[in-house]
């Protein structure tokens, strides 16, 4: 017995806004799937990916594919719908119909047909559509007062976030094409002020004052634009599986009228598009200029033994650190999210502390961790030898075995994260000394492995 899911509600937005929310890839990802691909024409392809469900549970990978069956702007949108995660998923169709409901409102009706009534897929979609139709209504209501834009950037989240908070970077991309920016003050913390002037291509200067409301590094920035026109911005930075970053920017105005006025008077939508295009271009330049420190050593030992030298505290204490330094292991939790906290004592008795925070461990191939100096309580501190040494360095160790020769090639890659331009310059200036320092450390590892083969 086939079953049909039907939902109906009134949305506080005109049909044009609702239809755009249903058919725009950018709008869809704000209330529906995590990734959307949609060709807005009859016969066009549809692809949605859900990596979390309507209850917020992550770890899913549901991929829905289909074709656009009907496309009547502001009135009807219909598509076929098939979940590829289940080869037995039925051929179903989703149809949205929109009717004016007066006072800039829209009656929205959803019909999802083709399921077997009472099946698990029927119940799951019935529950899901109850949630998502409400999300659609919330999005459309807010969207009349908002300007939103989502882009995927081929750069790590820490770098993208830093482009928004380091004045040296901001001046190189902020504003539409043809604009330049002079920053007088930029205090990136809750309650801090950002004061700047945007110089238009026609010579007009635009004074701006922003107050930061929320800074969650490297996830979210919220600020209020308190000079006219007034609005609130939320920028979110979501890390993607392939090392890219999903950036979403929302500009919320007091009313739909104020939003429309800014769009007409200042060309805000096109201005935002151009600004984010400039951000992507500047990120490409910065990524090309960035240098990471790389050192490689071949050890005359099997990979499992080299791996163990990094995974067990008793072994690490025998060789890690600069040549001649004594190590004390305070804690080693060798798992993603775990911490390696240790101290190093120099031959003249000076003590310094350090820590690793593990991000990824793939035995016996790769270890990824954030390396920092610390105090004895494990708090991150600045390096004792330089006031501009980066606070955090992303470290990637790879282990490659030559089974025939019974050797292991170890490669260490180091790059600063959440660092300023000056910190990057300091880091890159120390490459020669880092080669010498790690060379001595790996010499100690060679000696240790020779004794324990």
UniProtKB/TrEMBL annotation:
Signal peptide: none annotated. Pfam families: AHSA1. Residues 12-137, 154-283, 300-449 form the Activator of Hsp90 ATPase homologue 1/2-like C-terminal domain. It comes from the Archaea. Belongs to the AHA1 family. This is Activator of Hsp90 ATPase homologue 1/2-like C-terminal domain-containing protein.
